[in-house]
Amino acid sequence: MTAEQGMCEIWGAVCPDCGPEDYELIVAEAVTKLAANALSRTIDIVFDGPPAPKAGRFVEVEDELGRSVDVGKWVERPDGYWALRIRIPLESPE
Q: Which candidate, 75, 77, 78, 60, places its Cα nearest to that of 86?
């Protein structure tokens, strides 16, 4: 089985209307998704218990490898609550 035949067989299970003429598009989409997964980063906001009426307390913020990360700063709000303020960068127009 060639790589093209294998890709068409795999993709056929997901997209029955796709054929050999869609091979380049299928490969490009698969490579794009793999690259996006490899380049994406995650953070975990860690609590010592699950959401509940008596919810868990904040522990720390970690990266995907479990390392502590500084993602923002604690801010006391006028309403008496505290917030972990995390800046979200604006996406540049293409």
A: 75
